[in-house]
Write a structure and sequence with these properties.
With 262 residues, the chain is an alpha+beta fold. It has helices at 27-41, 78-94, 97-100, 107-111, 113-121, 131-146, 188-197, 199-204, 209-216, 220-242, 248-261; strands spanning 2-3, 7-12, 15-20, 49-53, 60-64, 69-70, 156-159, 168-170, 175-177, 184-187. Helix 7 (188-197) runs antiparallel to helix 9 and helix 10 runs antiparallel to helix 11.
Length: 262
């Protein structure tokens, strides 16, 4: 059994049972919707849905077990990147436009990314001894003071919402995706920024943003939005790491990285 902050995963009779710790966040509805959509429009990309007890306490979803090992902690080689690109590209484009229009947007996209980060940044933080980290927090506050979400038309996709390498399962040939608690209709630029700025990609795996972004060939308009969202996600990780015990070295690297983005 593996424990996570929002759920518990168990393997029962060869099937995966996911029990949600925080049902008020709506993750169980988003996950169940995603599994059913992907079973219809991209079979084999994700676990197949078996049963759901969304109003139980705690909510429970049963799904098939897909083959593969998480890419987190592994050396990411070009063939892994090819498989990640294929899986993410298929995810983004598999749901037909008419169906995608009826999927609720990602919670942060609905609220506005800048507003979401301002809300997180408003929480009190203790002073920090490292001057680089203090400068990064000041720069983040300055950017958030004038940032506004892009207003140009978005590129709607079905997005996973959580780009942790632990959610990318490699079976030696292809990548499959798991964990859709934060899934929904999203902007392609948002999803690409979430991917490139995830701490597991740029820091732990050491992947340059361009290494990933070039594979997806964003348009000029998407590239501008990607930069906005990358900055917002850079702030998100700075705030998250600031409150995570034992993250001092990683927090400083995130501070330096964010200053480069800004």
């Amino acid at each position: 059994m593996t424990q996570h902050s929002t759920h518990v995963i168990e393997l029962v009779d060869g099937h995966v049972v996911k029990r949600f710790r925080t049902p008020n966040l709506g993750g169980q509805q988003r996950e169940w919707r995603a599994l059913n959509l992907l079973a219809e429009f991209a079979p084999g990309l994700a676990p197949a849905p078996l049963a759901a007890y969304l109003d139980a306490s705690p909510p429970v979803i049963q799904m098939t077990r897909v083959p593969g090992e998480p890419l987190a902690g592994q050396s990411i080689l070009p063939y892994h990147l090819n498989a990640i690109t294929d899986a993410v590209g298929r995810l983004h484009t598999c749901v037909p436009p008419g169906t995608l229009d009826r999927v609720p947007p990602h919670p942060w996209l609905a609220k506005g990314m800048a507003n979401q980060m301002r809300s997180l940044a408003s929480q009190p933080l203790a002073p920090h001894d490292d001057p680089t980290i203090r400068v990064a927090f000041a720069a983040a506050q300055n950017w958030l003071g004038q940032a506004a979400d892009p207003t140009e038309p978005l590129t709607p996709v079905f997005g996973q919402g959580d780009s942790s390498l632990a959610n990318f399962l490699w079976d030696g040939t292809r990548v499959r995706l798991v964990d859709f608690e934060d899934s929904g209709r999203n902007d392609r630029a948002f999803e690409l920024a979430a991917l490139t700025e995830h701490i597991g990609f740029w820091d732990e795996a050491g992947l340059e943003a361009g290494t990933l972004l070039d594979r997806f060939e964003p348009t000029a308009a998407e590239s501008a939005r990607v930069l906005f969202y990358r900055r917002a996600f850079g702030i998100f990780w700075l705030l998250l790491l600031r409150n995570r015990p034992g993250s001092g070295v990683t927090l400083r690297r995130q501070a330096v990285h964010l200053l480069e983005l800004l």
